[in-house]
From TrEMBL:
It comes from Streptomyces mexicanus. It holds the Pfam family LOR. The lineage of its organism: Bacteria, Bacillati, Actinomycetota, Actinomycetes, Kitasatosporales. InterPro entries: LOR, LOR_sf, Tubby-like_C. Belongs to the LOR family. This is LURP-one-related family protein.
Length: 164
């Protein structure tokens, strides 16, 4: 399954649609402005909230939390020792971890579980400016979760770049 994501231009508070490979609007990323912490909602095409994404308030490193139906699903934070490439760890509540690595700001990275590829995020396939693709490789993977992970790591990388 391949999804097309239009890059946010102005940051938090912007809403943007994620389309499938046929141009059908599938998910809406609803950025919530005027909050103490960075907050997003991933909604389906009918407007139902599928996933809540927010910044963890009190942590030593920037951390994003993903919730579904009010229950924590995952925490995302940058790995401590990642010199050459951007590496993020996604800790799921069931104890499993996903690894996100690549050139996050260039929108060229992968999401893996235990060395197995789950999704590839890339601009290479697309000719549309300010758009990147999320290609969910495994049929049993949760597309909403993988899109939420991509939104989080891009947000964290951009925030880190802006603070540098």
């Amino acid at each position: 399954m391949r999804f097309l994501v239009r890059d946010r231009i102005l940051g938090i508070g912007d809403d943007y649609w994620i389309e499938d490979e046929h141009g059908t609007k599938v998910f809406l990323v609803d950025g919530k402005a005027m909050r103490l912490r960075d907050t997003f909602e991933l909604k389906d095409a009918q407007g139902r909230v599928l996933i809540d994404i927010h910044q963890k308030m009190f942590s030593l490193r920037d951390t994003m939390v993903i919730e579904r139906d009010g229950q924590a699903l995952a925490k995302i934070r940058r790995k401590r020792l990642s010199l050459l490439r951007n590496h993020y760890r996604v800790s799921l509540v069931d104890g499993t971890e996903l690894d996100v690595s690549g050139k996050i700001l260039d929108r060229e990275f992968a999401v893996e579980y235990d060395g197995e590829l789950l999704a590839v995020i890339s601009r290479r396939w697309l000719s549309v400016v300010d758009t990147y693709g999320v290609d969910v490789v495994r049929d049993d993977a949760d597309p909403a979760l993988l899109i939420a992970v991509a939104v989080c790591v891009i947000h964290l990388a951009e925030k880190e770049r802006d603070e540098a």
